[in-house]
């Protein structure tokens, strides 16, 4: 136990000395950024001069410790929101997205957590209708489940969802979901091309 304490106790001073010896400010900031991520040491982020690197440093620690309060150390609003999104994704918790004060960013956050959890029901919490359907389509395509496309409200996005899954799964029967003949025909042709490309590369 004493040895462990001595080793961990000397890490920060040694890191500080190594990084501060660097003459170039960018190299010094990158050194602190790398060491802070390795040691999960928030105090090292405060040594960074370049604002973008400092924000990235804090976000890395917030994400890896899953600690939302760490994001409070980021001054710039957009970077702080990105930090919150990173923590929400890591925790798989869409409720964390409520800490963001921009509706557009909240929608992005919910979409990311929904996809990371593969939970299409979470997409319903998104306010923007296009992003809501985009969230549903992303999960349907990722799961290669054309039945999930039926959760999509906008017809053009539904069309894209069905076509993508038909091509991805190389399953022409998925094309039968199209009621307009030319779309069904185009879908069959796209699947046939996909099958042909797969056979030629085999």
Give your account of this protein's structure.
This protein is mostly helical and 202 residues long. The chain folds into 2 domains: 12-91, no CATH class; 129-196, no CATH class. The protein is 66% helix and 0% strand. It contains 9 helices and no strands. It is elongated and about 70 Å long. The termini are far apart. Residues 1-10 have low confidence and may be disordered.
Keywords:
mainly alpha, 2 domains, 9 helices, 66% helix, 0% strand, disordered N terminus
Give the secondary structure arrangement, pairings included.
Layout: H1 2-20, H2 25-39, H3 42-45, H4 51-65, H5 77-91, H6 103-117, H7 129-143, H8 155-169, H9 181-201
Helix pairs in contact: 1-2, 2-4, 4-5, 5-6, 6-7, 7-8, 8-9
In brief:
The protein has 202 residues and is mainly alpha-helical. The protein is built from 9 helices and no strands.
Helix content: 55-70%
Radius of gyration: 24 Å
Q: Separation of termini?
A: 57 Å
The helix-and-strand class reads mainly alpha
User: What's the pLDDT, averaged over the residues?
Assistant: 91
